[in-house]
Structures are given as C-alpha cells and as structure tokens.
Write a sequence for this structure.
C-alpha cells in the first residue's frame, strides 16, 4: 500500500527529501520541522521517502503507548493499552496520513504523566524531560486545527481522567465510552477526509512525463505550499469548478501536467496523457520551461496579485511570464544550477522556482542581481549579452533551520470586477471617448454585482444608474475636469484596474 | 442530332460544375497550427490535417515550418524534434523530414502556404529568430540564408511541378504588439520588422531568380491582422485599440517593404470588435465588413506589391491567411451561429476575388485559459462538431466545405440557416 499522493504525507516526504539534499527545512507554516527531521533521518539510512514516513509513523504510534506505560503510576499502568485503541491515532495513520498530528498527539499522551511526575518529584531530570517534550510538541504542532484535533483532545481528556484520577467504575465506563465512541465517527469522518473519488495512484505522478516541481498533482506540494497565493491557486485547481480560472493559474505556474479526477472539469478540455483508477494526468498545451526570457519593462510594471480570483492580475502576469523563449536550466547538484543565455537589452530571466533568499546567482562578470515576482519565482537581470550563470544555494545555518515563510499577503476572497479594455462608451451611441461631463456612459466588463458595485471617477464615488453582471450605466459628474481621468469599479471592497477616459473641456 | 446536342450541353454543364468545384477547392484551404494528435491516432498532426484537408476536396493547405513545434509534441516541448535527429534545426532540415516533405509532394495539393520561421540558438533549444532585441547581422543572415536555402530546396526538389508554394509569416501585428510590450519602443519594433520582412522578400527573390525555368511558383506573402484598429498603449500595456491612435503593420510597415502578395488574418473583420465591440451582430454584416476591409488593404498596400505579384495577381493581391470562428463564442449567439458567418465570410472572399482563403484550422487546439476555443473543422477526437443549421443542409463546417467544393457556394446557401 502506498501513501496517498493527495494527502499531507506527500508534503512531509518532499520536505524530507529537500532536507537531505540541501540541508534546509521548509518554513514551519508549510511543514512542521519534527516530522520532516525524523523522516529525513530515516531516509538518510537508505530508505525511500514513503518507507521512511511509515517507519516514523509506526514508531510514533508505538512510542506513545510505551511512554504512557512507563509514565503511568502503578495502579493505572494497565490502562496504557488504551493508547493503542485511541481512534484518532488510527485515523491519523491510515485515513489522513497526517504525521504531524500523529506525532503531536502521541507526545501529548505523555504530557499529563510527565507533568504529574515533575509536580510530585520536582527533580531537574523530570523538569528537563517536560521541557524537552514541550519543545518536541512545538516542533510538530500542525499549523491549523481540524476535526481530528477535537477528537484527539476528547481522547486525551478521557485517558487522563482514567489514568490520573482514581476512577470509579462509573467514571471508567463513561470515559471508556468517550474514548471508544468516536471510532464510529470513522464512518462519518472518512468521507469528509477523503475526496469523493478514489485516491490518486502514486504511479501516476511518478510517471517520467511529470516533474514534481511544476506538476500540479492535486496533492499538496512544496512548490505550491510555499506561498499563500500558490496554495490557494492549487486549491482552486483541485476544486470541481472555476475551469477558466484554473486553466489561467496553470498557465501562470507553467504546469506541464495536471493530475485530476478523470471525469472532472478538465475532461474534454485537456489531453489525457495517462489514466489510472479514476484519475488522469492531463497535459497542458503550453511551455513548461523552468527558465524563460521575459521583458524588463513588463517586469517593472507587474502589480501584486490581490487574490486567487484576481483574474486581471493573473492575466497580466501570464502575458509577461508565459513567454515562448526558453532557456536550459541544468541542475548539476541539489545546491547548484547552471544556465546559459544570450540576452537582448530588454531581457530578463524568469526562473520558475521559489528559490528564497538562500540562493544566489553569479556569472563570469560577477554577482547577478535578482528579485522575486508576484508568485515568488526568481527573476535575474544579468544584462545584455551571452552569459553562463551559476545559481548556488548558500543558506546560513540559521536560514537552513529557520527559513522565513513567504511575506504575509492579505489575499482578498471573491471575484474582482474587470473593466473590458476600451469598454467605457457613450451610453447613447456607444462611441468611444472623449466624453462631455454629464454624459451617461455604459461600462462593460465582468464580475459586477447588481446593487453592490459602485463606480469611482477619479476620487469621486458615483452610484450606478443601472448595473448588471457585465454592464454598468453611470453619469459622468457635471463638474468632472477636462483631460484624462481614471474610472474604477468597486464590488465589496474589491477594485478593478483603472480604465482611463478622456473628458472634453 | 438533338440528342448529341443535349449530350453536349450536359457535358458542358458537368464540365462547368466540375471547374467551379475545382476552382473553389483551389482557392479555399485549411490551416493547421500546433497541437497534439487526436486520441486514437498513431500518425502526426501534420499528416492527419493534410489528409483531412485533401479529403474534403481542398487543394490548399497551410502549416508552420520552424523550430517551435514538430506536430508530434506540444509547442516548445523540450524534446521536440529529438526523435528526428540532431540535424532538424534549419528550415530546410525540417522541410526534408518525411512528414513535412509529404505535404510539398502531395499530388492533391496545388498550393502550399508555409508560415516559415528560421531558427537560432539563444541558450535553450533552437527557436524563432529573436525580434525583441535590436535586430543584428546574425539574425538577418539567418533569415536570408535559411529562407533562400528553403526556396532552393523547393525548386530543386519540386521545380517541375505546376504548384505554388507561398512563404508567409504569421500576423505581423501580433509580433509588433509583442515587441512593443517587451521593449516599449515603437521605433525598435518598426525598424526590426521592416528589416526582417525586407530580408525575407530579398531572399525569396534572389533564390527563385536562380531557377528561371521552374514550373513551381514560389512567392512571399506579408501577413497583417489589423486594418481599422491600431496598437496603442492602454493601461500600461500595448493592445489593439479602436480609438484610432497607434501603430499597425498596414500603416507603419507595409509602405516600407515589398512582397508578392498580402495575407490578411481576418478576425478584425469577422469578429466585429471594431464595429461596436460586440460579436453578436447579424451574420450578413460579416460580408460587408470583410469586403470593406479587403478594399482598404488593397488601396493601402498596392504600392508594396512586387513586379512578380502584380504579374500574377494584378489588383487581386490580398489573400485571406486566416478565417475562423470559435464555436464557444459564436455558435450560441442569438443573431446566428458559426455556419451563417462562415458563409458570409467565404462569399465576401469569393466575390472580392481573393486568390486564397485559408480556414483556421483543421483540428481544435487544446483549451487554454479564457482564450476563444473550438475553431477546428474537427475536434480533439477527430469528429466534425455539429453546428446549428436548418434541416437538409450541411450540419458541420467540414460537411459544408465538402458541399462547397463539390457543388459551389450557392448550394450551401440554398440549404439555409437556422
């Protein structure tokens, strides 16, 4: 049985591989360090990623019970076996394949006993053990709570009550019931934890056609988990709807393939390259080159992408980044990449990898400056001419162990309104600008909401005379000054890009 | 005697019908750009599209010849041409590959239009000559040499055949817009494109002059895609604009170059963005708009036509290099679907005596973002998609074209539209 490539196990395995190769941990907001460290340790003994994950998970499962047995005082010692029955542990292991939670809650099993031991004895040794346990729990705590955490917490209360408090038969019975009853939830939780289709076969994403870096495999991936924007775009791509926006994001990330349910939204839209067990690997009709030549001026004009449904922002990014001129990026070792380029004066190089600050670039003429684009991919500016560029990972120990998560972005939810280019016309005869102040104008676009959208003419808020999903009629204020002025549509706080119009004197 | 006269009349009628059919089949063709082979087919997309085109009765076929894709793998796939060996780099080397050579040699094809792009290496695999930087001697030399070599290869290999091979580029206005968005410099864009287009014409003229006795006609077409629109800077990017200010190949490049004929990629006329911004217009307007725009191109482009072009085409030197309607944009419009619009556009092209009209394209391209899709005569499963039409008439574009090639454009019209 293989690990579910759509589950969080995939993240841990990828992070462990990266740790082994580069000696660098991913940010804790992406994967907790402890599962990564333990899996990497086992993997470095020669096991593959999946096996290493299983070894760590099995050890954590058994260690929790052993630790409880060791820590429990004499009369309650037999109750350690309850740890083996804890439903959450089985769900972590087999249903969710969530090593972070398994480790965290296994460690939590020992916490009450260590705490009691420290309180009772007050020895330095027990204090150190409690502190070590606390640190380990911190290093394995999941970023966000979910329903399984509630179940695990209920179990902890039950076992602690049984083991720590001298139990009457009533307390014992009710606690046992509390402990065991949630196992029935398995049948309820299972469908919620699993997608409504069978798990994607591991073999599908291990096909030689797919490279993990730019494969949106439905599974979580460090490539996508590294930034909130990419994580949300991956969720959008995995969702059953929003086909056009999903295809746009797949273009933005230059994905070569997308793995998705065979009968899902990509059916009939993309070519199937492979198919197994209800899943298909769809081929994207685009260049998936990891390094491309892009425009300097276009790069300077890029704006932040404000949310996963900021279609205009993503389209502007794609227009800049989805360039046909590709370069060959050669990975000579996990910490070094080589690139050869013949560039014009307006050219930059876009490397579609989230490299972070620990990677530097240099050519024969010295260091190559660079910056990260709105998706977090690296842009290099070596200047015009022929270049041999070497990218090198040189993170300090601190950067390797405590990498910075991407800058926190405030991502807006919901669709952004868009004004069609040259989509503001005279409401009477649909003629283009210039317009006279006081004229009724029709504004065409997308993402408008009746009775919610408002129009801004310069810094003046103008209430629409009429609004539909794709058209707004409004009157240009009588005192609008002559010259160029920008028009914006705002819906629920989300603003379109500005469309300039000319106003007659 | 009367029986002989009747037979003679019938024979004459049949001959004229056959001539009319052959005439349209010789003037209306099909394009195939990139893509991958439809499901269930072993052959390459180029061969499949060529066979589909000739099976309809068309004798005109257009395709891309260059380094960006090989009709087996998707565009810019890293392993494109790898299976063809290390030599597949220049135009001639690609043209000699069996699937490409088969197009030129196909006895059913009388006219082959090639969107030809010489290639150079810039750090990745071989790619089209870079026009985004100030064009240098290296680029111009590649353009001249590779095109001249291709013409020589054609004349040597197919010089005895009564065919026409037209070398063309793909939508100069798109390239103009691409350079403007890359460099923000209209001067650079115009100078580059003038030098590049001139080099192509010079190469064709020089190489074909070496084969004065060839029956094969080799011509060079310059393709534009906007007539009334201009490329202007709007919201920090260069886009097509209806506001009248800006640049276009017709206005800024064509007057400074020579070519044998002008190719018009006709979406501006057929999709109607210039006339009110809406595609939902009566299909009959397509006819008027296309006639109007073809006339504008003829008027403005006449001084750019070479002596060879004038000799062959007189004043009818504007071909339609691309004509297409996306099913997802047009088929469900209240004013009419794809078929009546195609009929109107083809009627305009025939009435305007365009020497060639090329339909975009044989097979649907895979869907990409919010781009219009479903242009193909055949979908990704090689089926001809059914379109709205009245009973008794043709129900797909492929069927309608077959009807046009066998019985003329009027036969299609008589079937009527929904």
């Amino acid at each position: 049985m293989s690990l579910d490539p759509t589950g969080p196990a995939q993240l841990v395995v990828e992070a462990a591989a990266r740790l082994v190769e580069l000696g660098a941990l991913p940010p804790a907001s992406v994967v907790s360090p402890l599962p990564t460290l333990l899996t990497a340790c086992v993997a470095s003994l020669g096991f593959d990623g999946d096996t290493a994950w299983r070894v760590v998970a099995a050890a954590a499962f058994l260690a929790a019970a052993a630790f409880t047995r060791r820590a429990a005082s004499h009369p309650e010692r037999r109750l350690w076996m309850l740890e083996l029955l804890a439903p959450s542990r089985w769900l972590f292991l087999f249903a969710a394949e969530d090593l972070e939670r398994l480790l965290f809650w296994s460690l939590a099993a020992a916490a009450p006993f260590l705490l009691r031991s420290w309180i009772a004895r007050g020895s330095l040794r027990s204090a150190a053990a409690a502190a070590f346990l606390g640190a380990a729990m911190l290093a394995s705590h999941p970023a966000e709570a979910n329903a399984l955490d509630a179940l695990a917490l209920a179990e902890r209360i039950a076992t602690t009550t049984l083991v720590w408090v001298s139990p009457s038969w009533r307390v014992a019975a009710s606690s046992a019931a509390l402990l065991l009853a949630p196992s029935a939830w398995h049948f309820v939780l299972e469908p919620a934890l699993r997608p409504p289709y069978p798990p994607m076969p591991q073999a599908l994403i291990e096909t030689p056609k797919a490279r993990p870096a730019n494969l949106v495999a439905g599974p979580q991936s460090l490539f996508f988990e590294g930034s909130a924007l990419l994580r949300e775009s991956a969720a959008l791509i995995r969702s059953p709807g929003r086909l056009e926006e999903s295809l746009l994001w797949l273009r933005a990330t230059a994905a070569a393939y997308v793995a998705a349910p065979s009968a899902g939204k990509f059916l009939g839209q993309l070519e199937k390259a492979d198919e197994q067990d209800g899943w298909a690997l769809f081929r994207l009709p685009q260049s998936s080159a990891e390094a491309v030549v892009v425009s300097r001026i276009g790069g300077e004009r890029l704006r932040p992408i404000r949310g996963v449904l900021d279609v205009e922002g993503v389209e502007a990014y794609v227009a800049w980044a989805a360039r046909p001129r590709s370069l060959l990026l050669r990975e000579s070792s996990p910490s070094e990449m080589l690139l050869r380029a013949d560039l014009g004066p307006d050219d930059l190089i876009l490397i579609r990898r989230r490299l972070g600050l620990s990677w530097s670039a240099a050519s024969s003429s010295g260091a190559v400056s660079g910056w990260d684009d709105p998706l977090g991919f690296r842009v290099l500016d070596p200047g015009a001419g022929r270049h041999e560029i070497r990218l090198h990972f040189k993170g300090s120990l601190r950067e390797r162990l405590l990498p910075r998560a991407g800058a926190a972005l405030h991502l807006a939810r919901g669709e952004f309104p868009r004004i069609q280019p040259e989509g503001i016309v005279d409401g009477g005869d649909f003629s283009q600008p210039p317009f006279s102040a006081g004229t009724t104008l029709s504004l065409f676009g997308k993402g408008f909401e009746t009775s919610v959208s408002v129009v801004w003419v310069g810094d003046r808020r103008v209430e629409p005379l009429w609004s539909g999903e794709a058209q707004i009629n409004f009157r240009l204020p009588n005192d609008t000054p002559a010259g160029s002025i920008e028009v914006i549509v705002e819906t629920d706080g989300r603003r379109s890009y500005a469309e300039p119009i000319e106003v007659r004197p | 005697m009367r029986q002989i006269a009747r037979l003679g009349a019938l024979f004459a009628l049949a001959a004229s019908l056959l001539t009319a059919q052959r005439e349209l089949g010789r003037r209306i063709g099909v394009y195939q750009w990139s893509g991958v082979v439809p499901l269930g087919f072993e052959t390459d997309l180029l061969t499949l599209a060529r066979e589909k085109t000739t099976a309809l009765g068309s004798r005109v076929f257009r395709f891309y010849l260059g380094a960006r894709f090989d009709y087996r793998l998707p565009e810019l796939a890293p392993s494109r041409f790898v299976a063809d060996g290390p030599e597949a780099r220049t135009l001639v080397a690609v043209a000699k590959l069996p699937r490409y050579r088969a197009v030129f040699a196909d006895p059913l094809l009388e006219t082959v239009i090639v969107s030809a792009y010489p290639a150079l290496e810039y750090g990745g695999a071989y790619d089209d000559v870079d026009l985004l930087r100030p064009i240098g001697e290296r680029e111009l030399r590649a353009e001249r040499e590779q095109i001249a070599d291709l013409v020589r290869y054609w004349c040597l290999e197919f010089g005895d055949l009564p065919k026409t091979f037209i070398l063309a580029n793909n939508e100069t206005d798109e390239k103009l817009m691409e350079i403007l968005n890359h460099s923000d410099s209209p001067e650079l864009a115009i100078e580059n494109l003038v030098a590049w287009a001139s080099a192509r014409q010079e190469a064709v003229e020089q190489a074909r002059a070496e084969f004065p006795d060839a029956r094969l006609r080799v011509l060079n077409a310059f393709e534009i895609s906007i007539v009334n629109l201009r490329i202007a800077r709007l919201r920090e990017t260069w886009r097509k604009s209806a506001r009248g200010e800006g640049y276009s190949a017709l206005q800024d490049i064509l007057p400074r170059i020579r070519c044998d004929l002008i190719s018009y990629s006709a979406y501006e006329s057929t999709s109607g963005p210039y006339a009110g911004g809406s595609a939902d217009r009566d299909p009959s307007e397509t006819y008027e708009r296309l006639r109007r725009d073809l006339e504008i191109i003829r008027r403005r482009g006449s001084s750019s036509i070479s002596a060879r072009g004038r000799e062959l085409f007189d004043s009818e030197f504007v071909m339609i290099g691309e004509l297409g309607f996306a099913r997802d944009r047009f088929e469900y419009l209240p004013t009419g679907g794809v078929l009546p619009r195609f009929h109107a556009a083809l009627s305009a092209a025939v009435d305007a005596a365009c020497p060639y009209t090329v339909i975009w394209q044989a097979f649907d391209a895979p869907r990409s973002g919010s781009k219009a899709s479903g242009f193909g005569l055949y979908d990704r499963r090689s089926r001809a998609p059914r379109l709205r039409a009245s009973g008794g008439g043709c129900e797909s574009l492929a069927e309608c074209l077959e009807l046009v090639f066998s019985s003329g454009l009027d036969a299609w019209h008589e079937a009527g539209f929904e």
Summary: The domain at 23-415 of chain B is CATH 3.20.20.80 (TIM Barrel). Chain B has a mean pLDDT of 90. Residues 52 and 112 of chain B are 15 Å apart (CA to CA).
